[in-house]
Amino acid sequence: MTHALIVIDVQNDFCPGGALAVPEGDIIVPGINALMDQADAVVLTQDWHPAGHSSFASSHEGAVPYEVIDMPYGPQVLWPDHCIQGSTGAAFHADLNVTRADMIVRKGYRSAIDSYSAFFENDQTTPTGLEGYLRTRGITQLTLMGLATDFCVNFSAVDAAKLGFDVTVRSDLCRAIDLNGSLGAAQEGMKAAGVTLD
Ligand code: VGL
Ligand code: ZN
User: Fold this and answer.
1) SS3 for 144?
2) Taking a C-beta distance cutoff of 8 angstroms, is the pair 33, 96 a contact?
């Protein structure tokens, strides 16, 4: 079996001091780097929003961060402005071993739709292209880690399992936002989808 590490959104804005900081988001970096040597492939994902993205509370009159609104594709949490294309906040954490990456997948670059998952945008149908990349390389086994456990890692892991990949999430190398119990729900959802939580 050919094995890929999928490193989700280890970017400055999700680390302490960032615009959408995840507690301890930076302490997972050395552990992620240490796994890269043993992998056949390393894929990094990068949340990559244009200014004024529809997932930002600031794009909606009277809205505040962390409220949920209805979008044409379903409910959407509104976030502080984060991971603006080309900004320091959107850059990978300085200590992440970016040199080892075979592939960098950017997502969330369409203004009207968010993309938590590395495989499909939040309409759950528009592909990012990652599935094709992995399949054409003969990759069947995925280990996921990164930020945040309950959003982008969760959505990516569930989609990967639904697509038929053998999926493990290294919970020790993830950190969560944990909004209104979202971490517990994510853990249940991943298990139900057949994801192994390590
Ligand atoms: C993420 C919220 C908004 C994530 C990205 O990487 O989990 N969360 N954009
Ligand atoms: Zn985002």
Assistant:
1) strand
2) yes
pLDDT digits (tens, 9 = 90+) for 18-64: 999 999 999 999 999 999 999 999 999 999 999 999 999 999 999 99
User: How do beta strands 74-77 and 68-71 pair?
Assistant: antiparallel
Buried residues in 90-106 as b, exposed as e (16+ CB within 10 A):
bebbeebbbeebebebb
Cα separation, 152 vs 194, whole angstroms: 17
Interatomic CA distance for residues 50 and 47, integer angstroms = 10
152 flagged as catalytic: yes
Ligand 1 centre and the CA of 116: distance in Å? 6
Among the listed residues 26, 47, 107, 159, the single catalytic one is 107
**DSSP labels, 154-173:** HHHHHHHHHTT-EEEEEEEE
Closest ligand to the CA of 77: 1
What is the pTM assigned to this prediction?
0.97
DSSP 8-state secondary structure symbol assigned to residue 82: -
User: Which pair of tokens denotes residue 61?
Assistant: 């009159």
Which is nearest to 54 in space by CA: 113, 109, 108? Answer: 113
